[in-house]
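Journal club prep — side note

Before the paper discussion, L.F. wants everyone to see what a predicted structure for a comparable chain looks like in token form. Sequence:
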Amino acid sequence: MTRKNWLIYLIMAISTCTAAKAASEPNECAWMADVFDLVTSTVPVEWQGHLEGNSPEPAFCASVILGTNDWGSIIEQMQNTPDWKTLSKAQHELCRHSQFYQHRGSSSGVYADYQVFYLYAVTAEDARKLARVFLKAKSAQTRQRRSGQRHQIRLSKARLAEAQEDLPLKQAEFAAVKQQYEKIKTNVRYASLSDTEIAENAKETILRMNTLMDEVDIDRVATEARIRAIQHQLKRVDGNTHLQTPLELQLIQQTIELTGFEAQKLSALKTLEQRNGFITLFQRYADLGDQTRDLQDRVDRTPDWLAEQESRFQGPENVLAPPLAGNRVTIHQLQCPNRYILICIKIRCKTDLPTQFILVNQMAD
């Protein structure tokens, strides 16, 4: 056996070609539509997934580069597209048992803001169909999201019109309440206090007045009881001047005290009513201020927001989909690590030759 026979046990030929050059600028991307370019590349990509159960082994990969910030799973939406049923039985098995969809992170170069998606398939035809299913699902997802955004725009327009109508009325109401509130604030008692401190002061006064009225009620009940007792004694000593005079003096004293307690309660009730009215006025003042500011903010900001949102919807409805880089999907053959073995061949001859390493395709016959 010659040296040539020893060196050439197996030869694996790998032909490579580069995919067509992408557009030089991202803004040259076409909007994704039903028609896009399918480019077949002989440059293999490595299988990063795992097989489960009796899942068929993938052999091809569709590489899709989309201008989207949404890279969450879209498998359910893909399964709901009509073209999903056109996939082969083996592909359905792969999709059922194994990870056939992967987000591979951001792209690079002029498409650095785009996201790369890999779709694994058992045949090149399934890879093409799977890419079409994926893009249609992405289009439907985008249109659904855009529909929600359009609904939000309509709601915002309605709220803006309502705010423009309500704002003058709310401003007038707030001005009237503010005038009342500012008048109360001129009281020397509140001159050095902030709005919050004035409200807290009023709340403390309300608490004191409630406590005072409770105490007055207790004293009033006790005084009324003493008056009744004195009146009862006066009836028993009727005609006895010596005993009647001191009792009459006590009755006068207790009656004066009772009148004082009643005056205290009336004063406390008046103060309580004033403070409660002030708290109500303060709360109304604060609420109207917040409402007026919210309406003014909506009137000021909403037009710019609406203009920005509506600018995103220029063009026909059917082009509102994530941009597909170069309007192209690339189909790759798949290089699975478990498809290859490393054969170490030691060449023995008179001259020392290095050990030869040959990568052999296990799947090849």
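L.F.'s comment for the group: The two ends are 23 Å apart (CA to CA). Keep this in mind when we get to the figures.
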